[in-house]
Specification:
four-stranded antiparallel sheet, about 300 residues, disordered N terminus, single chain, seven-stranded mixed sheet, 2 domains, 11 strands, alpha/beta, Rossmann fold, elongated, 8 helices
Length: about 300
């Protein structure tokens, strides 16, 4: 007689299926834990690595008055020097500030890196002039991006890239075609920068600095008192001329922010191509001067 094959009962099948499901669930759970621990360890390492071991970048040049006032420190951040150098503007702007007893640090384009921006609030500047390349992201109401001279890499600053603090962008004339660079977003100002600005006045000379208010809001949230910029694209020559006049009105003549802005635009006019004009944020500081912009 042929031996009958022993059938596996329904209950045994159910138990086997449940055991298999349990093993799969356990394996998935362990994988999730391992991935979580791995990512946490990486981000902690990346944060600690970027938070330590980076000393402040030294300025390319420094202009000092005869009797420096430690409370009056200014920076000219000249990223445009890489492609649109203007030594006349640099010297004129520095002269206006030094005459008003400011110590002026000048940073040429190669100094403008991600880490430079990260540490910018810690320098203690009361006035910062940003002569930088900038551009808008794609999409509706896109925030402006301030470019660095640091070549883009998919393996650098991963936490910041994953949280939209840093973006990749291609710059125009004067740079290697097809090469891309890191750029900082308003999220980087709010989350990636160290410390706080101390009622700092910021003059953003690049394109689209105030087309939208995202970047201005980020700097004010970070402790800046006022943020000035163009509401559209602008040529290097026009923004250099306008900023020199703006500094004269603000510093030499001690005009209010609103007066200085209006008088500057009367002299230089809107950009002839984009019709953009200088503006400032927040509007409530318009009646203040640079001398008292640090007071409430």
């Amino acid at each position: 007689m042929k031996a009958e094959k022993k059938r596996v009962g329904t209950k045994a099948q159910i138990r086997a299926m449940k055991e298999k499901e349990r093993r799969i669930t356990t394996a998935i759970f362990l994988i999730i834990i391992l991935l979580t621990v791995g990512f946490s360890a990486y981000f902690t390492y990346a944060f600690l690595t970027q938070s330590s071991g980076h000393s402040l970048i030294e300025p390319t040049l420094q202009f000092k008055p005869q009797n420096p006032n430690p409370l009056l420190k200014a920076a000219i951040v000249d990223h445009l020097s890489l492609t649109c150098s203007n030594e006349t503007f640099r010297e004129e702007a520095a002269a206006i500030l030094v005459k008003a007893n400011y110590t002026v640090d000048y940073f040429s384009g190669e100094k403008v890196t991600v880490e430079f921006y990260r540490n910018l609030p810690t320098y203690g500047y009361s006035l910062i002039i940003l002569r930088v390349h900038s551009g808008l992201q794609e999409g509706d109401n896109p925030p402006v991006i301030f470019f660095t001279s640091e070549l883009y890499s998919t393996s650098e600053y991963l936490p910041e890239q994953l949280t939209d603090q840093l973006w990749e962008g291609q710059l125009g004339t004067g740079f290697v075609e097809g090469q891309t660079y890191f750029g900082i977003s308003p999220e980087f100002v709010k989350k990636g920068m160290k410390g706080k600005f101390q009622n700092t006045t910021l003059i953003m000379m690049g394109c689209n600095g105030l087309t939208y208010t995202d970047m201005a809001e980020a700097f004010v949230e970070k402790g800046a008192k006022v943020y000035m910029g163009w509401n559209g694209s602008v040529s290097a020559g026009r923004t250099d001329t306008a900023t020199a006049f703006l500094l004269q009105h603000l510093i030499q003549e001690n005009q209010t922010i609103e007066q200085a802005m209006d008088n500057t635009m009367k002299k230089v006019g809107p950009d002839p191509t984009s019709e953009s004009v200088l503006d400032y944020y927040p509007l409530k500081v318009g009646e203040q001067t640079i001398e008292n912009s640090g007071t409430s």
